[in-house]
Specification:
The chain is built from 13 helices and 13 strands. The chain is an alpha/beta fold. The protein is globular, with a radius of gyration of 20 Å.
Length: 363
């Protein structure tokens, strides 16, 4: 199938946490024979911080100027695709893209909304009954979500969605794997995540609080936004933006890697971040905050460690030795390779599309 995909960015992970998700899913779909064109706006300085200098082999990358005329022209260029995907959180002209892509819907074209931040999108739809997007929900042939499990599916169906299917984050084994330790990232605990309001309070609890409790351990903080008005601790090394090509070294070097869910994702549950699978793919010992559905992806105590608060994180670190950390990391890598790669997720996407086509054909 020919797939036209409108998203935030495929070629840059700068202020764009969905990049590795897009890359993994689209590479796997390409490997299964699909032709993909990814349309993204030139916005938020992402093109100045590209991780991919050219179009990847698995998708044609089209970067359009961040103005309304160019956005409409990009949608017009997608006419004739078998599948048109509008992802949430493009960042500029989202409402325009939602309405314009729907105009491409027809007998031979399915239009899909792919939600990479379901809690925020659902909050938007429920808070603003007059929001044009809310009226579009029943019109999409299919809604796919980054995660959220049954709570998100139920919420979308309540708003009239024909069908909603979670397509979870996963491991791209071609990109994320164990490498030799890198002295830049040596330390007790590493966490990588941009500073956003929905995450900041939890970062203070699960990362900065343990760093205060364990002043002799080096804590590594990657991501944008942490250089101003954040706790200043001598044992916390701020790394700034960690480029995709550095993720394996970052995940392979510290004793443990921390996953901290955004508050809204933790409340819905069943929403493992890309960090979970990237770290597991690199054989890292993962300490994660608690959220419903963890066991569907990794087994607590043997494939990951689960913390309810900062004290739990510190306790896990005190109890860890390198032998146990490596055993937990190896078990996590084995689990995700067997059950949670983007190859598995691409098959889920195809199944959802086939069932959608069957339902539409029977209507």
């Amino acid at each position: 199938m020919r797939i036209a995909f409108f998203g935030s960015s495929l070629v840059s992970a700068y202020w764009n946490g969905a990049a590795t998700y897009y890359r993994g899913i689209l590479r796997a779909l390409h490997d299964r024979g699909h032709q993909i064109t990814f349309y993204e706006p030139d916005a938020f300085d992402r093109q100045l911080h590209r991780d991919l200098p050219t179009s990847p082999h698995y998708a044609v990358s089209v970067v359009y100027p961040a103005d309304a005329f160019s956005a409409r022209a990009a949608v017009a260029a997608a006419r004739g695709a078998d599948i048109v995907v509008k992802a949430s959180g493009v960042g500029v002209f989202d409402e325009l893209l939602e309405e314009a892509t729907m105009e491409l819907k027809g007998t031979d074209t399915r239009v899909i909304f792919w939600d990479v931040d379901a809690p925020a999108t659902l909050d938007r739809a429920n808070r603003k009954p007059a929001d044009p997007f809310r009226a579009l929900i029943p019109e999409y042939d299919l809604i796919l979500t980054y995660g959220g499990g049954k709570p998100v599916v139920d919420a979308y169906e309540k708003l009239g969605a024909r069908r909603c299917v979670p397509i979870y984050n996963a491991l791209d084994a071609n990109t994320h794997y164990p490498v030799n330790p890198d002295s830049r990232f040596e330390g007790l605990l590493g966490f990588c995540g941009n500073r956003i309001p929905d995450r900041e309070k939890r970062v203070r609890e699960f990362f900065f609080h343990p760093a205060e409790m364990l002043p002799r351990g080096r804590f590594l903080l990657g991501g944008n936004g942490w250089d101003i008005n954040a706790p200043q601790l001598p044992n916390v090394s701020r790394l700034g933006h960690v480029y995709t090509e550095e993720h394996n070294a970052f995940n392979s070097t510290p004793v443990a890697i921390l996953n901290i869910s955004r508050q809204s994702m933790a409340e819905y549950g069943f929403s493992p971040a890309t960090q979970v699978f990237e770290a597991a793919g690199a054989g890292a010992c993962i300490i994660t905050d608690r959220w419903e559905g963890i066991e569907q992806f990794l087994a607590p105590d043997t494939e990951c460690l689960v913390a309810d608060n900062g004290e739990d994180v510190a306790r896990h670190l005190l109890d860890l030795n390198l032998k146990r950390a490596k055993a937990i990391g190896a078990a996590a890598r084995k689990r995700v390779l067997e059950e949670h790669t983007y190859r598995h997720r691409a098959a889920d996407v195809e199944e959802a599309l086939a069932e959608t086509n069957a339902l539409k054909g029977a209507a």
